[in-house]
Amino acid sequence: MGKALDGIRILDFTHVQSGPTCTQLLAWFGADVIKVERAGAGDITREQLRDIPDVDSLYFTMLNHNKRSITLDTKHPRGKSVLESLVRHCDVLVENFAPGALDRMGFTWERIQELNPRMIVASVKGFGPGPYEDCKVYENVAQCAGGAASTTGFDDGPPLVTGAQIGDSGTGLHLALGIVAALYQRQTTGRGQRVLAAMQDGVLNLCRVKLRDQQRLDRTRVMHEYPQYPDGAFGAAVPRAGNASGGGQPGSILKCKGWETDPNAYIYFITQAPVWPAICEVIGKPGWVTEPDYATPKARLPRLAEIFTAIEDWTKTKDKFEAMAILNEFDIPCGPILSMKELAEEPSLRATGTIVEVDHPKRGKYLSVGNPIKLSDSPTEVTRSPLLGEHTDEVLGELGLAGEEIAQLRAIGVI
Ligand code: CAO
Predict the structure, then answer these.
(1) Of 32, 56, 168, 201, catalytic
(2) Is the distance from the beta carbon of residue 213 to the nearest atom of ligand 1 less than 6 Å?
(3) 3-class secondary structure for the chain?
(4) How much is the pTM?
């Protein structure tokens, strides 16, 4: 079966996490992704957080599936000329170098357009145009600068970063969408264009509901669904809301049986208004269905702490899966707190290809997250990440270089 992006060639100049997540998605949709790495060194993540000596790390292998790797010194004149051929040969150049690095290499937007007017140049940068545009940025900096850290955590604690890589992988996702849109527009214009996804912008986009809340706070000075209400004070900026639900249906994380020893014996419980009578029934508070202090969502808002304590008295008598099974019978929205160990072992995620086992010639078998986006006519088969420079000869051959020329480039350390 063909793939959605069959025939699209990606010059993958990405490294670390944000860019590689983008090009990995494009590869999973069928694009031919040619990863260009520095000769002798490669993407720095190949050697970061290694669990097996001298073997590409899980950091690298889990972000670079389904790609080809070539080595090339793009600062050497001979390397530059190979890169020019690649620019002519490919549809999209994706990069996430520090600001200005591509220009310093001699590949400005103008030069790339001269070489290939159909080329799409897609970049991840830490910040968009403005005071910080020249800054290097990593994941947690983006989380802090994009509004996630100031709104994550508890009111009495410091700002907190989240384990979800919303700055890196989140921005990679944004960039992939931009590339696909630019490819679509190219069908009518015949021209390439630049695509920029700034990490600050991507994080802020994912924190959209917090900017909503900032404006509500500015207008009304209070937010009834936040844990600061009714006893705490609100300041000028949206506060950290702990585990309170971000939407109009109050929710919280509650202890389940075993919480004293198991750090993940918890459940997320949402007191969705339409199922309030069922919640009261399950937790043994049938009177709350009609008592005026509890009967309506508005009446419940100042009493959420008391209500969640009563629900927790019930959840503590069940393990998280028992609680989930009972609550689902009543259509009460909830979710167990699943550890990475539990997720890795979950059969249904294996069945859908969301968790895959991949075989690597040096590492052996390892687990990875497969393509989370499922296309019915373009299924993803996850293949292992390439070894450094594994496809150099193959790709240079496709560019028309003869075996002798390739040997020369190798002899002078350009590839
Ligand atoms: N041949 C020759 N030189 C190469 C090369 C190749 N194949 N590939 C890269 N280089 C050069 C670059 O041209 C650059 O050289 P100059 O600084 O002389 O112009 C140099 O390698 C280093 O690139 P870099 O500045 O991008 O790398 P860094 O390790 O110093 O910074 C990072 C890393 C991630 C902070 C920076 O790339 C960045 O801010 N990127 C944008 C934001 C981003 O994607 N951050 C997320 C990273 S994942 O957490």
Answers:
(1) 168
(2) no
(3) CCCCCCCCEEEEECCCCHHHHHHHHHHHCCCEEEEEECCCCCCHHHCCCCCCCCCCCHHHHCCCCCEEEEECCCCCHHHHHHHHHHHHHCCEEEECCCCCHHHHCCCCHHHHHHHCCCCEEEEEECCCCCCCCCCCCCHHHHHHHCCCHHHCCCCCCCCCCCCCCCCCHHHHHHHHHHHHHHHHHHHHHCCCCEEEEEHHHHHHHHCHHHHHHHHHHHHHCCCCCCCCCCCCCCCCCCCCCCCCCCCCCCEEEEECCCCCCCCCCEEEEECCHHHHHHHHHHCCCHHHHCCHHHHCHHHHHHHHHHHHHHHHHHHCCCCHHHHHHHHHHCCCCEEECCCHHHHHCCHHHHHHCCEEEEEECCCEEEEEECCCCCCCCCCCCCCCCCCCCCCHHHHHHHCCCCHHHHHHHHHCCCC
(4) 0.96
